[in-house]
Design brief:
Number of helices: 16
Helix content: 40-55%
Low-confidence stretches: 432-438, 463-470
Shape: elongated
Mean pLDDT: 81
Largest sheet: 6 strands, mixed
Order of helices and strands: HHHHHHHHEEHEEEEHEHEEEEEEHHHHH
Structural class: alpha+beta
Distance between the termini: 79 Å
Radius of gyration: 30 Å
Length: 481
């Protein structure tokens, strides 16, 4: 018989209601509450609170609310606090009951400004140390990459800021004893003064850039460095490697990155620190015939000169400071009389070659790995590093800033990287609820992967069955013959 819902008045009082009983035992927040110690924050920020007045919201609860903002991919703290009374799992996770009064969203923003970046750096380090203790981090092979983050500001807010530029210049001059020439921005966003215009893959972004090192073993993020969007990748490689070493207490032995990081200074650093690079570099375009490109000119280190295919000498004549290169050129009268003139060069001043002061380090970097090994590492970098950014964008709102300012951008990137590491830790450690509830597609994918692994192991075990007595007798008979 088909039933029908009774229209009854809502109860004024509910007896025997327990959030702990209503929350499933395999809920991800239960595992997170077991694995993560949020209480460390109390001693970390104790000196930022006074001893008189009204008691504040527990800092551990505030940190959990910040955690939920990124873990559940909520757009803002205001939206988080409006949904909090409706989510029983969130209430249980933060230690609230159904009829408890939840704090205002401004409590979270005030705490974030008061605590500063160091608190979130330690939160990231705590989870990373758990991953290291669980054996998820090797530390010797890392992949380095960067990704743009749209700022919480429109490009229309870019305007000339002469007063701000002059004030910044004055402060830098006051704090420096030597004359300096700071880089001045022509236009600054009136909404987010720390955001900058950057271009990558043909797209211009007003915002920030996150530079990561991702461990090769399980894709754990070992370091994250946040800069304005206009900072070139090549300038941050050394800092990322140093951050990786400080966070993992392990020196990297192999670094894989794309050609945006391939400059002489980086190769020199890697050479001096005995780190094998898998980093391409930009090849300068040549307008001459391939038979007369730079590789066809022989460098004589003893004489510090080049010898061209026709046997003529190119001597050093000048130094290019911007490219850290020595310029070599033939005699003005030599090239016009050569039979290859017009193919090798069209300049009446003679053929010109630039040699970087890091040329030997570049050649060393190119010869460190075989073609196969370089291709293998770059393939792993693609799904380890780029996959890490894709996961952050799809599940945790990585591609757009929720707040404004470089410090808040660092906090956002640290929290998202910590959550990604925590999800991998949950997946590889014993216990239930290894899959976050915020990503049903990932749950289905992991379940399919587990089913495939079980089927593969069953198929593999078929080849390891003990031999029967008849098979043993048959083999012995064959051997005796």
């Amino acid at each position: 018989m088909m039933g029908k819902q009774k229209q009854t008045e809502p109860k004024l009082f509910y007896h025997g209601v327990s959030l702990n009983r209503r929350l499933p035992q395999d809920h991800p927040l239960r595992r997170i509450d077991q694995l993560v110690d949020f209480s460390f924050i109390r001693s970390k920020v104790a000196d930022l609170y006074g001893t008189v007045g009204n008691p504040s919201v527990d800092p551990a609860v505030i940190l959990k609310l910040m955690f939920l903002t990124y873990y559940e991919n909520v757009n803002s703290e205001r939206a988080l606090m409006s949904q909090l009374p409706l989510r029983l799992d969130w209430l249980w996770f933060c230690g609230y009951d159904i009829d408890d009064t939840t704090p205002d969203h401004s409590v979270i923003s005030k705490a974030r400004r008061r605590w500063g970046e160091d608190v979130f750096t330690e939160f990231f380090a705590n989870i990373l140390n758990q991953c290291i203790n669980a054996g998820l981090v090797d530390g010797e092979t890392i992949h380095v990459d960067s990704s743009m983050i749209d700022g919480n500001a429109s490009k229309d807010s870019l305007k000339p800021q002469l007063r701000k530029v002059s004030n910044d210049l004055y402060q830098e001059l006051e704090s420096s004893a030597e004359p300096i020439a700071p880089k001045l921005e022509k236009r600054v966003s009136t909404t987010d003064s720390d955001a900058r215009l950057g271009k990558k893959y043909g797209k211009t972004t007003l915002g920030y850039k996150d530079h990561r090192s991702v461990d090769d073993k399980h894709g754990i993020v070992t370091a994250t460095v946040t800069t304005p969007a206009n900072v070139n990748d090549e300038k941050v490689l050394v800092q990322v490697i140093e951050e990786h070493k400080a966070n993992t207490d392990t020196e990297a032995k192999t670094v894989a990155a794309d050609k945006a990081y391939g400059i002489g200074e980086n190769y020199e650093y890697l050479y001096e620190h005995n780190i094998t690079p898998c980093i391409g570099h930009k090849i300068a375009n040549s307008n001459c015939d391939p038979a007369f490109n730079h590789d066809k000119f022989i460098y004589d280190k003893g004489c510090d000169c080049y010898i061209c295919p026709a046997g003529k000498i190119l001597k050093p004549v000048d130094f290019n400071k911007s490219k850290n290169s020595m310029i070599y050129r033939t005699n003005r009268k030599t090239c016009p009389q050569c039979q290859h003139f017009g193919i090798c060069t069209l300049s009446e001043k003679g053929r010109r070659i630039q040699r970087s002061i890091y040329k030997e380090h570049v050649e060393w970097a190119d010869s460190c790995l075989t073609k196969y090994e370089r291709k293998r590492l770059m393939s792993r970098r693609q799904y380890k590093a780029e996959g890490s950014f894709a996961d952050a964008a799809n599940n945790h709102g990585f591609k757009r800033m929720r707040f404004r300012g470089i410090e808040k951008a660092k906090i956002q990137n640290l929290m998202i990287a910590a959550i990604q590491n925590l999800r991998k830790l949950m997946r590889h450690t014993p216990g239930r609820s290894t899959i976050p509830a915020c990503n049903p597609a990932l749950k289905m994918l992991l379940l399919a992967e587990n089913s495939f692994n079980r089927a593969f192991q069953a198929w593999k075990s078929c080849f390891n069955q003990p031999k029967s007595e008849y098979e043993i007798f048959k083999e012995q008979s064959a051997n005796s013959r």
